[in-house]
Amino acid sequence: MTNTILAFTLSCIIALTQPAAPPNAQSPQETAGSSSPAPAKAKPPGPSAAGSPRQTPQDTTHTEPARRCNGSSSARLQCAQESFQYGRYQEVVQALRDPIEQGRFAGQADLKEAMRIYGISLFLVGRKQAALLVFTRLSELAPTLRMDPRLVPPEVVQAYRSVRRKRLARRLHHLPKANTGSMVLNFLPPAGQFQNHQYVKASLILTAEVCLAAANATSWSILRSPKYRHDGSYVVQDAEGNIIEDHRTLAKSMLVVNYVSFALLIGTIIYGIVDGWVVLSHRRKAMKKRRQFLQQQLRASPSSSSGTFAMDF
User: Fold this and answer.
1) How far apart are the first and last CA of the chain?
2) What is the DSSP string of 181-221?
3) Cβ–Cβ under 8 Å, residues 92 and 121
4) Measured between alpha carbons, how far is residue 47 from residues 52, 55, 58, 253, 284 in Å?
5) How far is CA 260 from CA 99, 219, 272, in A?
6) What is the pLDDT of residues 184-238, one digit of tens each?
7) Per-residue model confidence as pLDDT tens digits over 133-190
8) What is the distance between the alpha carbons of residues 43 and 50, in angstroms, rounded to a whole number?
9) Is 167 exposed, middle or buried (0-12, 13-18, 19+ CB in 10 A)?
10) For residue 181, is it left (φ>0), alpha (ψ between -120 and 50) or beta?
């Protein structure tokens, strides 16, 4: 009896000293049986998996195959611009060679853009002499065009600046001086028109002067003919005073021709003098502005500090 009470007391003490297990604790057998991880449940296919092909990360090292640009000049230019943006310069050369050489660009804006990217592409593929020729023509089409070194490789900008500067210097050297032409020649029409390169107007003035001068001289010679009386009667009488010849009607006509031709001749000469003077003044002003413009462009175009592209144009 005593042993039974002692064993019961010990079992109670042991039970009180041990911590209580959590409610969801598993038995050792259950823990041992579930030691391996449970298989993950498969996700249901989403809209992209069911309706579209599975997308994979883009391969940045992949390059698109070369393509040929066909069609009209505008379509070729658009295709060449896309290739130029991705650095496919050989495609740009192939796309724009024929339209540029055959002159198929109707608009000046498209032609300038085509020449710009065509020249840059030629330079970057190693055809530098051909690129310099294109840059020369581009500088003629667009004298104010400049290339941004932040968008264009520095060696290309340097080559274009060198070509453009040489072209401006050559045009400035061959430009006539602002005081070209002589004002004295304007007082001898149509000499002023000939020096102003207005050949059609000069021919018309010369023809008018010759015809009017001839009419005036002919009418004057008829009026001063010996068979006419110089006292203004324009009749021929015999010794008895009878009228033998009456030229008064013809004389009136010749007087009108003489006066009108003389007035028109003076007017033509005055017109030739004034026209030659005004046109020559405008030419001098235009040449002066042109020279100033080229000088400003030449000053604004920096010279190449390193490396020059020697080429004769």
Assistant:
1) 131
2) S-SGGGGSTTHHHHHTT-HHHHHHHHHHHHHHHHHHHHHHH
3) yes
4) 8, 12, 21, 107, 77
5) 61, 11, 18
6) 899 999 999 999 999 999 999 999 999 999 999 998 888 877 666 555 667 666 6
7) 999 889 888 878 888 888 889 999 988 888 888 887 777 777 766 567 788 899 999 9
8) 12
9) buried
10) left
Handedness of CA 219, 221, 227, 229 (dihedral sign): positive
8-state DSSP, 43: P
* pLDDT for 54 beyond 70: no
Handedness of CA 275, 277, 281, 283 (dihedral sign): positive
Torsion angle of alpha carbons 205, 210, 213, 219, nearest 10°?
Answer: -130
Query: Tell me, which fold does domain 73-174 have in CATH?
Result: 1.25.40
Please answer whether residues 202 and 194 qualify as being in contact, where contact means their C-beta atoms are separated by less than 8 angstroms.
yes
| CA gap 140, 126 in Å, rounded | 23
How far, CA to CA in Å, does 296 sit from each of 226, 227, 289, 292? 72, 74, 10, 6
Rounded to whole angstroms, what are the CA distances from 16 to 10, 19, 58, 288, 304? 10, 8, 66, 116, 98
**What distance in Å separates the CA atoms of residue 148 and residue 141, rounded to the nearest whole number?**
18
Alpha carbons 304 and 165: distance in angstroms, whole number: 9
For β-strands 235-237 and 243-246, DSSP reports them as antiparallel
Handedness of CA 22, 27, 28, 31 (dihedral sign): negative
Q: Start-end ranges of CATH 1.25.40 in the chain?
A: 73-174
**C-alpha 291 chain-centroid distance:** 21
